[in-house]
Write a structure and sequence with these properties.
five-stranded antiparallel β-sheet, elongated
């Protein structure tokens, strides 16, 4: 009888629990009935497995491979699909924060290694310490959940990435042998033979740097390093590993692309029905916690003289761009130019009708002494109501001089880039890089422009604004007709 078996694990299904004990009984009945139906229609394609006489059954090939000697796909820890590049900026559960200097200074570069010595990364899931907590969010989850396990997602319930303890069991209870040419395929790697004579082969596929394939193997475990939650434990070997102590069980940056070899728990199987799989799915419906973003407050106290809104005007969430406004106008529009600017005549920037202190720039030599937006011309006051307004240039300087500021990629897993401002009390706001509109929408995703309420004191057709770009935050000015973002403040 062959020592290699095939299984057909059940499909993952998304269950929407009813309000009765969190269990949707109709869904449970449907899942149970589906087990009895045609296996070709209800089961995912699964790999073959080998029983090495251990506590779990080991797949014969890597995730993404069709044969034991193929490398398969490289996957970041907690992600379920391969990708072209692996880094801090595109990892699903990191929010990268690149610290800036003050608004008039240049950015100091921060290396990848430096990120792991400070709090420049916020963890969105699998977080065990305050250092990397998002506004104090700690979930203390130290093992991959099935929705984040590429083996489970690829092969179905019952399959999963091995724990670091299961890797240790593999090393300590099997004979190990470095193989130069596995089954004549020209592939190097390690062969693990159980006491029952069965074996698996782990090819030396290297990591996402693509420099070590053929000489080293890196395989993810499902275990987070709770002391260093930016890392997860992995299993490592090279050609000189010849006894259990030579195999390296340590943690690796979670964003890195490593190989995955799946395992499954031994269980009673009859007529294609895997009772462990059914039990796992039922327990998942009842117990699996759901990670949700916290309700966003209306405003944030950063320990400054004013309270800052949590989102741009026109946005429903902190990461949304919201609407653009011309300076002194209170409604967004499709096009931004002097031709349709409300506070001038004939589309002429030398015919201003308000906020003009130089007669040659005013319509019919009009002048006034206004250098700060009145509430009737302030989009924040008009849209959000009494007490809300655009910040002054002094309030912006207070913000950057008293808070930690830096660029963020993929804010809270939304894919939005921007800038995070963290007060000394730990609270923060996020300013998305929404770009600007000066007749053409430009610099979306790379630059952020935010109006201030202060008129430029040299040229009245310009007003002050914030500019966030390339890790730098500074003040400057733009022509008043430009469409820029608005972030409101209110007095305490």
């Amino acid at each position: 009888m062959s020592n290699i078996h095939k299984t057909v694990p059940m499909n993952n299904e998304t269950i929407n629990p009813s309000e009765s004990n969190g269990l949707n009984m109709t869904s449970l009945i449907d899942i149970t009935n589906s087990v009895m139906q045609d296996s070709q229609n209800m089961f995912k394609k699964a790999p073959e497995y080998v029983d090495l006489g251990l506590s779990v059954l080991w797949s014969t090939c890597n995730v993404g491979a069709n044969n034991p000697w193929e490398y398969g796909e490289l996957i970041a820890w907690g992600e379920t699909e391969p990708k072209e590049s692996y880094g801090l900026d595109n990892y699903k559960f990191y929010e990268c924060f690149e610290e800036c200097n003050d608004y008039d200074d240049e950015l100091t570069e921060v290396s990848d290694d430096d990120y792991f010595e400070n709090d420049n990364i916020t963890l969105l899931k699998y977080c065990t310490c305050n250092t990397y907590a998002d506004d104090g969010f700690i979930d203390n989850i130290t093992k991959l959940q099935s929705s984040d396990d590429v083996a489970t997602v690829s092969y179905g319930s019952g399959w999963r990435i091995p724990t670091i303890e299961e890797f240790k069991e593999l090393i300590n209870n099997c004979e190990t042998e470095w193989v130069e040419n596995y089954q004549g395929q020209g592939v190097k790697g390690f062969k693990f033979t159980g006491k029952n004579g069965n074996h698996i082969f782990l090819p030396a596929a290297g990591d996402d740097l693509d420099t070590l394939n053929g000489t080293e193997g890196y395989y993810w475990s499902s275990s987070l390093n709770p002391d260093k939650p930016l890392n997860a434990f992995h299993f490592y070997f090279d050609e000189i590993s010849d006894d259990p102590e030579d195999f390296f069980e340590d943690s690796y940056h979670r964003f890195s692309g490593l190989s995955v070899r799946a395992v499954r728990v031994k269980s009673f199987e009859s007529n294609g029905l895997n009772m462990t799989s059914l039990t796992d799915m039922t327990n998942t419906m009842i117990q699996q916690p759901q990670i949700q973003l916290k309700t966003v407050p209306e405003y944030i106290d950063l320990g400054l003289s004013v309270l800052w809104a949590t989102r741009n005007i026109g946005a429903k969430n902190p990461w949304e761009y919201g609407d653009f406004f011309a300076w002194g106008e209170t409604e967004p529009k499709d096009n931004y130019s002097w031709d349709n600017y409300e506070l001038c005549k004939d589309g002429d920037d030398n015919k201003l009708t308000k906020y003009c202190y130089i007669f040659c720039s005013g319509y019919n030599e009009y002048t006034d002494t206004l250098t700060k937006l009145q509430s009737s011309d302030d989009a924040a006051s008009v849209i959000l109501g009494d007490g809300w307004r655009m910040p002054t240039i002094d309030e912006f300087k207070e913000l950057v001089n008293n808070c930690k500021t830096g660029s963020v990629t993929n804010y809270r897993g939304t894919g939005v880039n921007g800038y995070k401002i963290i007060g000394k009390n730990g609270n923060h706001i996020f300013l998305p890089a929404a770009g600007r509109n000066n007749g053409t929408l430009e610099e979306v995703g790379s630059d952020g422009y935010y109006w201030l309420s202060s008129l430029d004191t040299d040229v009245p057709s310009y007003a002050h604004r914030i500019h966030l770009f390339a890790g730098i935050i500074k003040t400057g000015n733009d022509e008043r007709y430009y469409g820029l973002s608005v972030r409101a403040v209110r007095n305490k």
